[in-house]
Amino acid sequence: MVSVSGNSTASSALALMRGTSAAEQTTLSRVATGKKVHKAADNAAYWSIATTMKAANLSLSSAEDATAMSGAVSDTAALGLDQANGILSDIQSKLIMAKAVGSNKQAINGEISQLKEQLSQVTQSASFSGQNWLALGAGERPKVTSMVSSVGSDADGNLEVNVTDFDTAQSTLTSANDASDGILTRSYLGVTRTGNAYEYYLLDRGSTTPASSTAKEIGLDDQTSNDEIDGMIAAVNTMRSGVTNAAAAVGATSRTISANTEFLNDLQDVNQISIGRMVDADMEEEATRLSAQQVQSRLQTIGLNIANSQQKSLSQLFL
């Protein structure tokens, strides 16, 4: 006759060990991945929200890159306009100096020519990523440039890209196409204190459509009268006003882009923190939990060994 005896204490201990082992494996997974929710089965609601927010963050990141690019373009234009305004002030000062008794107008004209060359270099070099808001080439006209400013969702949950528009007609200084499109290539009527009117332009870019046929390029020679110089000064002063207005327009656009870039960056940070709170594991907490589970597992192993030893001793006692 064969007798089979069961050890209920050992069975209970073994069941507890299985539960502890499963819990330990879950904790180990969290420690390894750094996530408490890394698949839908872990927490369907949190996983769905976090996945949607991650996709939104990718869109925000792309929008931030786009606004950073737009910011670089507008900042480059703003810097060019600031330099252009300074050079115009120098030209105006040279013209005023040319009115002094005994002034060498030919020498002063040489200095003005150098300043005009600097102006041309500034307008041509104020380019970023192929975008130049200050200079137009042959066949080009001012245009409205649309720049990504933010990304969001409309009332129906569809992705919505918002843009900031800037009309380069506000900032164009020179044009090789139509001289009238550029603040420094178009002609201005300079009226003097004596009531005489002179028409002048500052830069000649060889425009397809040149400045007015009656206009003269600003420049000096020994025969230039003080009245003519007054007309030039008045024309340059009008140009300076135009460049100042252009700088204000570009500056306002640049500030808008900069504010949007900062907002997008902050929004990404908030989203990332929110995602983390939902799906990221607290590593300090998980490490403490893992240590406790490992101690619990060792104690349960000891308990199982004791239960088995007791059963063996009892079996020997009744033999």
Provide a descriptive summary of the structure in words.
Helix content is 60%, strand content 12%. It has two domains: 44-279, f41 fragment of flagellin, N-terminal domain; 283-319. The model is unreliable at 1-6 and 39-43 (pLDDT under 50). The protein has a three-stranded mixed sheet. A two-stranded antiparallel sheet has the order 1-2. It has a two-stranded parallel ribbon with strand order 3-6. The longest helix has 55 residues, at 44-98. The chain has 319 residues and is mostly helical.
Number of DSSP helical runs: 5
Q: Mind telling me the CATH class of the largest domain?
A: Mainly Alpha
Query: What would you call the shape?
Result: elongated
Q: Could you give the count of β-strands?
A: 9
Strand content: 5-15%
The computed structural class is: mainly alpha
The CATH superfamily of the largest domain is identified as: f41 fragment of flagellin, N-terminal domain
Largest sheet: 3 strands, mixed
Brief overview, please?
Helix content is 60%, strand content 12%. The chain has 319 residues and is mainly α. The longest helix is centred in the first third of the chain and has 55 residues, at 44-98.
List descriptors:
5 helices; 319 residues; 60% helix; f41 fragment of flagellin, N-terminal domain; three-stranded mixed sheet; 9 strands; single chain; mainly alpha; 2 domains; disordered N terminus; elongated
Could you outline the blueprint of secondary structure elements for this entry?
Blueprint: H1 8-33, H2 44-98, H3 105-125, E1 127-128, E2 131-132, E3 135-136, E4 144-153, E5 159-167, E6 174-175, E7 188-191, E8 197-201, E9 216-217, H4 226-279, H5 283-317
Parallel strand pairs: 3-6, 8-9
Antiparallel strand pairs: 1-2, 4-5, 7-8
Helix pairs in contact: 1-5, 2-3, 2-4
